[in-house]
Amino acid sequence: MVEKGFKKIEDYEKWNEILILTRFLLYLSFENLISLENNLPDIFHFIINTHWVNSFYLRSWLLSLAINILHSLSTKLPPKMEKDYEILVKLLKEISDIRFRMLFTGTGVKQNEILTNKNQNLIPHNLSEIPIVSTEKITQLFNQVLKCYKNDTEIYNKWQNKWIQTTTKCTFDNSIIQCRSFVILGVITDEEVKTELIKRFFHILAVYWGIWTLQTKQIETCALQY
């Protein structure tokens, strides 16, 4: 998503375009105008990899986008099974709760409270960096959303494969989002991991520690047997 060589996403030359397009996505997220059946994995990927930047408004937009997406899924593209639908509604309530607002924005203040209040002191100007553990929790919730559709094999496999494919590319791309991509990939491959992916993990670890030897290769082969 972001080219190499940048220390912060905000330094990316097309950052202003990202902000504008994020707002545009938020408008389209009502009533599933965003075509979730085709784009859900990409939207999840975008939200998770930009929710931690130093912009209160962007963080608020992303949270609103996530809430609208889950609402659209529950009304326009509900799961086939009643029990899965109930889980989806529960997840919608969870992400609308103040605890998730804290994960995204670091404050319990809602964006509309700031827009309707002339007191600019409500705006947190010095946002703390969102820890990776928050990224993990958000990813876990999104992953639970996907699992609500496991009884619809075609759409579930389509979404899961696209999400894993996109995240894997970022994980091994040595970009600014690589660190969080490792965490995200670990969450969304919680049920099945391809052998090739495990080999790539071993390769990165070995290269990082400078120990790519015959012994490392033997350890990798042994580990893959279990």
Automatic annotation (TrEMBL):
Name listed for the protein in its UniProt record: Uncharacterized protein
The organism of origin for this protein: Anaeramoeba flamelloides
